[in-house]
Amino acid sequence: MRLQFRREYEPKLLPKGLRGSGVFKDPTKRIWTELKDTIAEDFLQNMVSALLPTGALVIDPLMEATGILHSKHTLVVIPDDPRLKEYRAEFAGLIGTLQEHPSEGADNTPGFAGSRQISGTERLWEHLEETPLNRVDARAFLKARLMDFLIGDKDRHDGQWRWARFPDGEGHIWIPIPEDRDHAFSNLDGFAMLVARRGIPVFMEFEDKYPSLLGLTLTGWELDREFLVELDKAAWDSVVTAFCTELSDPVIEDAVKRLPQPYYEIVGETLTEALKSRRDALPQFASRYYRLITRQIEIQATDQNEYVQCEHTPSGDLVVHIGLREGPDGERQAPYFQRTFLPKESQEVRIYLRGGDDHAEISGAKGRIVLRIDGGGGDDTFANASEVGASKTQFYDSRGKNRFAKGTGAKVDESPYKRPPGWIPVLLARYALDWGKHSFTFPSVTVNPDLGIFLRGHHSRMYFGYRKAPFSSRHSFSGGLATNGLEPFFSYTDDFRRILRDLDARVHFKYSGIQTIRFNGFGNDTQIQESSAFYKVEQNHVALTPSLYFRKKAHDEDVPGGPTEPLRSVLTVRLGPILKYSNTSPDANEDKFIYSPDRPVYYGTGFFGQVGAAGAIMYDTRNNPAYPTRGALVRAAGAAYPGIWDVVSAFGSIDARVHTYVTAPIPTTPTLALRVGGKKVWGTFPFHESAFLGGPGFTAIGLSDSHLRGFRKNRFAGDTSLYGNAELRLVLLPIEILVPGEFGVFISVDAGRVFYAEDPGGADKWHTGVGGGFWLSFLKRKQTLSVAVVNGDDLTGVYLRAGFMF
């Protein structure tokens, strides 16, 4: 059954102080504009069947039993009444819920539930930054989060809360009011959701057991890590125990019976048993979550003048006190935050002092927990009297007149740093993730003439760390088998961010038993006289490349066309050693060109090992890598191999290319894309290190690089190659293929040649490929597909690829 969705009530229809919501939800209000009126919108609408429309009626008594501040829901039907006027056609007969909208009292009188002020989360953050006299009730917030876990409400970002302020001695305490329970009890089952869950863990089922910790909690991480930090394990467990005790079987049974009778007959018994089972399993789930958010602790101070005292105890614990410094002498007041962190629970504690003139003091002889203190604004003083060393004591401050006393050892970082904005859409967080870890696994299948059917698996695990966006380290594995080869493909890559300030590191290892290249001999005028298979070269290949990277992050002014991706690099420099070992076996290449009896034995065949140094530089100011219309890309790479191992004499190479893009502001918005490049090899080099020129081919990684369409892969080989490419790309019309996009055409010209010292006769011949094609782009050109047909001397080739060739 397909439901007709309706938007929420217009505020003008409701009396002041009430808020309404339609039972039949319209999730497409949040969809990207580009996906409006598409199959994606229909898909989201059909997903509403996974929701329990009247679930709020069940949640109200559960929150009452556990003492969670909330406003009650009442199921209503809007009558068909002339007083609806222009809203009558849309709203008459609509089933929905009404609830009191939490608001403040007039003239400082008590408002909702006796509170003195009601704020959203953004305003609450401002209050908390101003003074420690404002604080969140951590126990009340934990109770609210436990309810989220129980009912399976994974949509709990900062916009889903309001906060009620109550007097608390000389200060104010803020109590959470959870709102918007649309996703409670949602059951996203089925094969499509099972597949989607691999990449989007919030697509969960609601069952009698808990789903993944990640999917159920991740949208609340930002608030949880800040507002629950004062609770140690004993306090945490006491809240969990009380919560579960308050949710007795009769409470749950009565709550589910609040459902309308038709709903209760369908889901009542199942929902009741699921809630009881989840309540019983909640202590274990909550304990797992405590361990997760306690590994890397984050403590937020305020903009007042404050002191921080941190002591490493002999047992390895870290005791933290934070309090106000008042008066001209900075007299210390009683601490407003104090907690002992245990090394078995916490690996790292981060303290953000924010504004004010703050004093931080570290003491203790032993330490097992890393301590990071960020001074923020103001003139701050850091004093280290501990003996735990710089690996465990780290100060960060680039603003104000700061003083650092390193003592026996502390790391001081005065470089400016701005936390990058959140870039993972499902998190809905203000800042990029800088703690925890995440892993994902997925398969892929490639079919091509060289490899046959290539089955491949990928696994990647990312660890996130302080000031190391988008990740601290990433460990990626890939392996596969091809039907046209008996040996496997295997690669492993380790990436490490900011190992030394702006330096990153990478270690890459690859083994390929299905490596296929092509070799037609040296020269700019070699002829193809046999079948294509005759010129294939099957080669086993091993490569190890450790590298150091320097990256300059993009800023708005660096890239034409407005803001850039938040974590994109404009400048990348790479340098490191390189080791390669290959086997071009006579048995695997019998009756092939490379081992033709009437030809000399080419240098580099058989077993061949080489070791050297390699480097690269890339400067990228393109406004959109998938469809660039402005900016430039400069790439250069070089390698040098001394005469050791199987290398008879030293050789080296440089490979460089420059791309540029210009767009005219006229109809069809034509973009002229240009690229020039080449490679130079010096010395006596093995055949597989030649300066190759040719069209794209297939490898275990995917589609290889292309310089000259209309020709086979590695068609020409020499010691020097030069090439140029030009494309004129036009936008013709908007289209919709599942999602909105654009359709356009382009014409292309490729030209290139190689030089070889022993082939002077080919010096005047330039090879060309001329053609054109069409392209499709989707979602603001973030996804682009192009199809080109190019005619060259070898063949007329059809090239289908993601994006453009350059």
Topology:
Elements: E1 18-22, H1 39-47, H2 55-66, E2 73-77, H3 88-91, E3 95-100, E4 117-120, H4 121-130, E5 134-136, H5 138-151, E6 161-168, E7 171-178, H6 191-196, H7 213-217, H8 221-227, H9 233-246, H10 249-256, H11 261-294, E8 296-300, E9 306-312, E10 318-326, E11 331-332, E12 337-341, E13 348-352, E14 359-363, E15 370-374, E16 381-384, E17 393-396, E18 403-405, E19 411-413, E20 437-448, E21 452-463, E22 473-482, E23 489-500, E24 503-518, E25 536-553, E26 569-584, E27 606-620, E28 631-641, E29 651-663, E30 671-683, E31 691-693, E32 716-718, E33 720-737, E34 739-755, E35 767-778, E36 783-791, E37 796-802
Parallel strand pairs: 5-7, 8-13, 9-14, 13-15, 14-16, 15-17, 16-18, 17-19
Antiparallel strand pairs: 1-3, 2-3, 4-6, 6-7, 9-10, 10-11, 10-12, 20-21, 21-22, 22-23, 23-24, 24-25, 25-26, 26-27, 27-28, 28-29, 29-30, 30-33, 31-32, 33-34, 34-35, 35-36, 36-37
Report on the structure:
The protein has 806 residues and is an alpha+beta fold. It folds into 3 domains: 221 residues, no CATH class; 118 residues, no CATH class; 367 residues, membrane protein fhac: a member of the omp85/tpsb transporter family (Porin, Beta Barrel), CATH 2.40.160. The chain has 11 helices and 37 strands. Strand 33 and strand 34 form a beta hairpin. Helix 2 packs antiparallel against helix 5, helix 2 runs antiparallel to helix 10 and helix 5 packs across helix 9. The longest helix has 34 residues.
